[in-house]
Amino acid sequence: MPAEELPNIRELLGEILLLLPIPILIVLLVFDITPFIAAFYSIGATILLSWCKKSTRMTPRKIIEALVRGANSSLSVGSTVGVVGIIVGVTNLTGLANYFQQFVTFLSGGYLFFLLILVIIAGLFIGMGLPTTASYVVLVILGVPALIAMGSSPSLPI
């Protein structure tokens, strides 16, 4: 990168202060503060830190615009969580996860490799009708019990 395109180090260090809300959020979550309260304090810290520099200062109008953009962005996440909640409720109510586990275990013939292939195929079909996050959660609800029943470890290796 040519030297004239590189950012000025003084300007960069002046902007690095705006990263402080991220450690604030992490520390609050580590000390068992609820995610809503931790997010509230992090947003407040972001607004306060933006006032340290004129170029990043948030006026009341900018704060409202940022809140509106955040609310609009959260609608897709909220709808996904709602769909997943309905699917989880129906799955638990009807026992579909147990039937799915028995069915794919029977089809795999007791082999873990074939069970993985069947769960992957189920994931493809589930992914055709749901957003990525929702399909992942539904596949976990349906596939993980079958994998654990076949002897796969539910914990991650460290």
Provide key terms for this protein.
single chain; 158 residues; mainly alpha; 2 domains; 73% helix
Topology at a glance:
Elements: H1 9-15, H2 21-30, H3 35-50, H4 60-94, H5 96-108, H6 112-127, H7 132-149
Helix pairs in contact: 2-3, 4-7, 5-6, 5-7, 6-7
The secondary structure category is: mainly alpha
Along the chain, the helix and strand elements come as HHHHHHH
- Unreliable segments of 5+ consecutive residues: none
The overall average pLDDT, rounded, is: 85
- Tell me the overall shape: elongated
Through-space gap between termini = 38 Å
Total helical elements: 7
Number of strands: 0
Word description of this protein:
By secondary structure, the protein is mainly alpha-helical. It has 2 domains: 3-58, no CATH class; 78-149, no CATH class. It has 7 helices and no strands. The protein has helices spanning 9-15, 21-30, 35-50, 60-94, 96-108, 112-127, 132-149. Helix 2 (21-30) packs antiparallel against helix 3 and helix 5 packs across helix 6. It is elongated, with a radius of gyration of 23 Å. The two termini are 38 Å apart.
